[in-house]
Amino acid sequence: MYTPAPNISSDSLAIAMNPELGFQCTSPIRCVGGKAKQVRYLTKLMPDKITHFYEPFGGGLSTTIFLIHTGRVKASNCHVGDLHQPQVNFFKVLQAEYEQLTLALLESRLWHGNGTRELFNQAVDQINEPPFMQAWGLYIFNQLGMLAIRRYKYCSYAQSIPQTGGGMIHDRILRLPAYGALIKGVDIQERSYTDALDDASKNNGFVFLDPPYEGFEQSLYGVEFDFDDFAERCHAVKDKCSIMITINDSPANRERFKDYQLFVRDVFYGMSKKNQGELVICNYQLDSQDYYLNRLGYQVAA
Asked: 51: Cβ–Cβ under 8 A, 6 or more apart, which residues?
């Protein structure tokens, strides 16, 4: 049973409310490696009952937003985050000041249309400013810049985006109040996946882990990541909480998680321009699991 759309006060930007939020649009921002296009598949393989949900590789919060909207978990029982401070700050501001943020972005669009280099440069200058202006800058940067780069001062303005109808799109900005109202009550913090695993192990929670894909961690994410240590930390708590991991299919990843359930499905990676295998790794089993796997096009990894 789906939850009703969140109530927004009549004097807010309630005209932005889209009753299909969570089905057509699952994140307010673009995100490298985001699960916006896959969340409908992945959530079918998540536990039937989720009391406490953890998403430490939060990104664009697609999974959290979808689970809340479809009634799978209460917003107050969601614990999400990322180690990328500007992105965490954006969602905290969206959560607390969605009306003001929406109006500020609409005003920027009034003067700059779908986007200009001047607006992009102003946004980059605000990335290290106080929370509200940082959130304003992050959104504009996200819509107008090169998606895979977080080194803001060295990122280029993607002129082709507004020229082809993208960028600061009016209807997309008007969806922000709906997202803000939806994530009211969500615990949003800068937190590591180790903290999430530790917390989940104490209350039998469910942890969704979408780490950088091996071989892409520097080129797409701009981070260093120890995949062997990641596997070991998952193993340490696998008997105390439910875990789902999505990661690229490789012999190394299959070996690291050989004692888990491994499913594989061809997934289109926008940055690589081709289909590649993705592993879905679970330490639990669902009722009617084979039925879901067949319907969703997943296969048990051989």
From this structure: 73, 77, 203, 204, 205, 206
